[in-house]
Amino acid sequence: MNGFPLYPVGFVRSSVKTVLPPESFRDIESEILISPCFEAALEGLREESSIVVLFRFHLSQSYSLSVHPRGDLARPLKGVFATCSPNRPNHIGLSRVPLLEIIGNRILVRCLDAVDGTPVIDIKPFRHMDLSDHLPLPANGE
What we know:
Helix content: under 10%
Number of helices: 0
Low-confidence stretches: none
CATH topology of the domain at 10-62 and 92-127: Elongation Factor Tu (Ef-tu), domain 3
CATH class of the domain at 10-62 and 92-127: Mainly Beta
Strand order of the largest sheet: 1-2-7-6-3-8
CATH superfamily of the domain at 10-62 and 92-127: YaeB-like
Strand content: 25-35%
Largest sheet: 6 strands, antiparallel, barrel
Structural class: mainly beta
Order of helices and strands: EEEEEEEE
């Protein structure tokens, strides 16, 4: 497999230091410290109510193509792409979070399921749009 480099645009600062289930982050506030060279990219982001954060599961060491969801051995195996497991081929995570405030190069958010020190790959505004009206119907009409 050929790879390509990804460089963090910033890092998560959080009170959470160890891996937890995603629902444990529900009320946790954290911040994303944007590297100074990317601070200008925050222009206009304050107007958004929620953002999508792409990050790297930097504590993951390996991956498997099939996993038990949530590590629960009582649940049947699923392909890793059908789960939110952090142990995936590129160790990339994605979270939609409420944007609380931007102060300088600090983005304050809630519910980001990333631990302290997590590298942030990218940030995008989340704009809910119902795409179902724009998707083609299946050939069989269903």
